[in-house]
What does this fold into?
Amino acid sequence: MEIKTAMSSLKTHLLYEALDIAFQEVKDYFDKYRRLKNTCFWGLYNTPQTLCAFAISSSVSYRIMAYSLKYFATGVEERGDRFECFAPLGEDRRFCVLRFSPKHYIRALMSLAGSYCTYIRQFDYCYQNNGFTDAFYDGLALNEVIDINVVSYDAKLFRAYMKGRKSLEHLVFYTGDHYCSLFDVGDVVVQWVDISSLYKSFNAASFAPLARMKIVHLEITPYILYHDVMATDIFRNGMPQLKFLKRLHYHCPIGILPVIEMLQRYHIEEMVFDDVRLLCMSLPLHWHARVLRRTVETLWKAVVDNRGTKIVVHCSDYNIGEQLCEYTSNATLINNLITLLPEFIISSTRDAVFCELHRTLGSKSLTIKFKFFVTSWSILYY
It folds into this structure.
């Protein structure tokens, strides 16, 4: 009776301060000895039955558990018939704060765990838990602290997280993942979508999930260093709602012809293509120069005519092709290039000749760079 009276009369702010000190002691002990005295914060009483009994024993006990879930036990592990809330310590070490089972669980606390968790670990058989974790998934819909990439890899987690949301700040999707979260975004406005390929190339279906999406900023980045060249309009199989799309940044290799088509079709406020590949040709130099000049003029016209306010196109110096010709010295090659490409800046080193073109009109710019490697028997265009 005396203990119960003392618990009920304990000031709330002192209770929380005591918990802060206790959790800090555990962390300090781990930092010093790199091990834990107990794997559960409450000592040996770490079964779902005893922990649930403690939580419902009094209003103070419940507040202890709720405060712990909100500020310390922000990690969740769902493993079959076990649901555990833990405090992460780093180096894949942790200590348990609360455990639930299909027979012993508290829905209100599980919902609170969903609202404040920042890390979730699942296993393939976690769905066979007879639904006793449903309250946790209901709480995810109210979670404002978790990184969306923690839940975007799994259909059940992501769909629970998305319930009732009207907007998202940032969503990353890797093509090749077994689950595509973009299909479950629905009518939500996403401020930033980052698409990255796990393989060497995008295929026709890579951008299909973008269809009808409301995206403000779309970024396409290479996950690996060497990437095949995209040969078609990226929106051919799935076009987002253009009235929402304000910025398109494409950082993967893409052919110059698809870029021209996209600039002619889509008038987006800001478009950046910083790895455009020139045409691969095996032609005599004068024919090559003629095709290049015509292509550059078509590209620049598409840049200027586009109604976007900022258009940046950078054509890189790879994969132009390989050409065998009669030039065997830099001087001869430079003289011919000056005649054939008068707008280009021509420079050279001992074994290479560089060509550059820069055009700017307000916030619209075009840069083209390529080089020739000169050998004693051939010139290689890259």
Q: What stands out?
A: The chain has a mean pLDDT of 83.
